[in-house]
Amino acid sequence: MAAPVQTVTEDLRRWIVAQAESGCRPEDVIAAMRASGWAADVAAAALEQTLERHLAQRGAARPAIVKPAAPGPAADAATTQRLSDGCEVRILARLQLPRVVVFGGLLAEAECRQLVELARPRLSRSETVDNSTGGSEVNAARTSDGMFFTRGEHPLIATLEQRIAELLRWPVDHGEGLQILRYRPGAEYRPHYDYFDPKHPGTMRVLERGGQRVGTLVLYLDTPESGGATTFPDAGFEVAAQRGNAVFFGYDRPDPSSRTLHGGAPVVAGEKWVATKWLRERVFT
Predict the structure, then answer these.
(1) DSSP conformation letters of 205-270
(2) Among 61, 154, 232, 241, which is least packed by CB within 10 angstroms?
(3) Which segments of the chain have a pLDDT < 70?
């Protein structure tokens, strides 16, 4: 049965304008509409069209906050990019929805090995965000070992952070510390979203440190003998874990309509090591 048509009324438009003029962020307005039963695409379109019309009536320019800049390479970026540190990165594949870019050669083999050895002594059972409190918890859906580097704590980390910032056009200080994960045979990370769901009570606490997550970069530090692909179930797309390569995906709103549901398929043989960089909308502290 077809979903009922949702009509944007003038009362709703007035409410959207009032929220914007009071300083509410677009993603918060959309989250409130979603909580009231509005479909994500209808809410986003209503917000954008209402504010465009309102600003046009006032003769004002449309502010960038309506559609904020997002991390990722430019749409017309060359297939091969030579970065300022001399690294040559290749774009191997792109998807539009979800917004996914697969990179080749983002890390040299020696860099991969050094990251693994720096991380190995500090590994412990991986945790996820506790949605009820905003803290961390061990979760059965994530069966890896991991650790975090703080930003710039080692020369190699600082080099990689600058490389990532240049490639994805996103400031270093808008990123969380690099996380290293090891997946042994049978280990996996079941499909999930990386953004912080506005519906959960612990989300407001998490957002205090840098706002919402807006993008994820997974870098492969080793090539397992079998298994371990990064999967995007909604797109029917998989990225094989290949040492030195990486996959980036961005999400412009914290909602399943981003189609960024993803997971780490079980490792069948060997080990999979990855580094994950999460990007925030503001300075991460």
Answers:
(1) HHHTTT--EEEEEEEE-S--SEE--EEETTTTEEE---TT-EEEEE-SSSSGGG---EEEPPEEES
(2) 61
(3) 1-4, 23, 58-68, 127-142
Tell me how far CA of residue 209 lies from CA of 62, 63, 134, 196, 213, in angstroms: 28, 24, 11, 12, 11
Beta carbons of 281 and 237 less than 8 angstroms apart: no
Which residues, in sequence order, are bridge partners of residue 80? 90
Amino acid (one-letter) located at 38? W
Q: Kindly tell me the burial class for residue 35, based on how many C-beta atoms sit within 10 Å of its own C-beta (0-12, 13-18, 19 or more).
A: exposed
| Structural domains in the chain plus CATH codes | 10-66 (no CATH), 80-280 (2.60.120.620)
Confidence (pTM): 0.74
The beta-strand segments (E) located in the chain are: 80-82, 88-95, 99-104, 124-125, 127-129, 136-138, 145-148, 179-183, 189-192, 213-220, 226-227, 230-232, 237-239, 246-250, 262-264, 267-269, 272-280
Is residue 266 a contact partner of residue 187, using CB atoms and an 8 Å limit? yes
Q: Residue 264 is which amino acid?
A: G
Q: Which class for 16: exposed (0-12), middle (13-18), buried (19 or more C-beta within 10 A)?
A: buried
Of the CA atoms within 13 Å of residue 139, those in its CB half-sphere come to 15
The CA distance from 187 to 189, in Å, is: 7
Lookup result for tokens 């506005």: 198
Report the DSSP beta bridge partners of residue 238. 231
Question: Under 8 Å CB-to-CB from 91, ≥6 apart: which residues?
Answer: 73, 77, 78, 79, 80, 81, 101, 102, 103, 104
For residue 182 the two structure tokens come to 């090891």
